Structure formats: C-alpha cells, structure tokens
Amino acid sequence: MSGSDLMPQIADAAPMRVPAHEPLVEVWRGEMVEGLHHGSAVLLDPDGRVRLAVGDIEAAFYPRSAAKPMQAVAMVRAGLDVSDDLLALAASSHSGEAVHLSGARRLLVSAGLGEDALRNPPDLPYDPVEREAWLRADRLPSQLAHNCSGKHAAMVVTCAAVGWAHDRYLDPMHPLQVAVRATIEDLTGQRAATVTADGCGTPLFGISLHGLARAVQRLVLAPDDSPEQRVAAAMRRHPEMVAGSRRDVTTLMRAVPGLLAKDGFEGVQVAALPDGSSLAFKVADGADRARLPALLALLVDSGVAPDVLAPFAPTGLRPSGALTQTHPDLREKP
User: Fold this and answer.
1) Measured over all CA atoms, what is the biggest interatomic distance in the chain, rounded to whole angstroms?
2) Which fold has domain 3-331?
3) How open is the CA angle 120-265-88, to the nearest 5 degrees?
4) Does the predicted TM-score (pTM) go above 0.70?
5) What pLDDT digit, counting tens, does each position of 300-326 carry?
6) Percent of the chain topping pLDDT 90
7) What distance in Å separates the CA atoms of residue 282 and residue 284, rounded to the nearest whole number?
8) Are 157 and 113 in contact (CB under 8 A)?
9) Cα separation of 223 and 226, whole Å?
10) What does the domain layout of the chain look like in residue ranges?
11) Exposure of 8 by Cβ count < 10 A (0-12 exposed, 13-18 middle, 19+ buried)?
C-alpha cells in the first residue's frame, strides 16, 4: 500500500477542548508508585486503522517540534533542494553540536545569506555538554546555536529559491507559512484548529494526535522521490542531524532499522516504522522524562523486539497498563 492510497480527505478541524487524558507512565520508588504522568496516545496499523488509543486522540493540541517533518515536506514541495544531511537538519531540533551549526551555515551560504537572515531568537546549545563548553568559553547565545536554526535556515533558503521575500517569513500570511499550513492539513487530513507562535517564532498549528500519526504514516509510505519520501529518507539516513549524539531520538533511529522519529517540547513524540505502523502521543504535564518509556512501549506494540529497546529503558519509570496491552511483561517493576 502506498502513501497515496492512505491519502485522507481533509476533514474539519480537531475540537478545541480539555483532553480527557489517561495514565501513561508511572514513576516508581521501591515498592510504590510515587508519581504518575497522564497523557494521550495513538498507534496506527499500516492500513491506517487505530490499533491502540489512550486518552483523547481527537482533541486539538500543539505538536511543537514534532511538526518539523511536515514543515520540511512543505519546503520541499515549494522548491527546497538540498543534500540529505541538510534536509534532515531542516526537520531537526538539534543539540547545537559542531555538525549542526556548520550545517545551518551551509544552508545559509547556499543562498548567499548570513545568520542575520534568521528570525529565531538567540540561544545556547540545547545539549548540556555543548552548553557548558560554550559557557566556559564565555561564548554568547547565537541564532545558529538555537535548536531550531536548521528549520529557520531552510525556510529562508526556500524563500530564496522560490523568489519570496524572506524578511517576514514567520508571518502566518507569508506564502511559505501558507504553504506549510496547507501541507500540514493535507498530511494530517484535517483543517488546522488554531494558530499561534512556537517558541522559536514559527507559526504553530493545532491538530490532533490522530492526525499527527496519519501524517508520519504518509511520510514513510510515500512513493519514491516524492517530497514526503525525501524527508523521511533524509531523516533516517542522517539521524545525527535530527537530534544529536547524546539524544534518544538519534540513538533509537540508529538502533531500530527504518525507524523515523521526532520529539517535541512539552512531552510530544511521533514515530513510524517502514511498514507504516505509526504512533503519536502527548504527555499532559509536558515532562520529558515520561516520553522515552511511553515511546519504547508503543514501539514494542508496533512490533519492535523488546531486547532491541531494553538498553534504552530508563530506571524507575514504566509504562501504564494502557500502553502495554499486548506486552504485559513491560509492566515488570523497573
């Protein structure tokens, strides 16, 4: 089955309501549950049917940086044509390592632009090791060091390639952002519920978890040489550009053949396997510590061997029973 076979009709926007979240991840100390993270999660079969739904998968939410693969697809559709490593960087929330900063510079230079073309705020590197090194060297925050600089650099390069003015590329009515919205609505199969600004200033559209899972499924099942397939292939070929050498998204993509994964702030995660199994979830309180155990449980439910994922399991945390219906052994005390 191809990605085009799964192309949904664009439906009405997801309802804006307080989601009815359910327990996703337990925090254990000794013999007792000390804490509990609620959230919502969805797992899709390769044919698009819902295999598992926890909480409220239809309510509108903000995907945060988990939307970046869709934004990258929009840029390729518009005319962005760069090497795979730089396309992966366009879909990244990078750690601020040297390879990421040099990649963002390469993007800008390819269009004859400098760092001053970026409209994201300055920041220190996201990776703690890189951040400490910057502070010890008395280096100041920079726009290139921001974890979203790859996306922003790709956006201004896209504008240059198409002939759009890039000084207002973050305006929701700019042709680039209009194209991004249209692509997100196409891939998710639903209208955007609302628009606001993400932490980096990029327009951020409200969608559902179900829609996000449909979108990433479209990427991994897309025909060869399509914009969707190009973005998915670039991210899987260059996982080091998607996050960083000390980030679970990168190390998991290296460990699980064909895995496509992207995290987002406030406890968001999306992922898909080559057969089209896809997942998306949101941790209600935004706690990142709950993201990895939830992701591992859903990957096992998707068919990934537990022994492949065991080295990644954090201590003291385990998925709730709702996430482990097919593999209750994952509920063993951490």
Assistant:
1) 62
2) Beta-lactamase (3.40.710)
3) 65
4) yes
5) 999 999 999 999 999 899 999 888 866
6) 91
7) 6
8) yes
9) 6
10) 3-331
11) middle
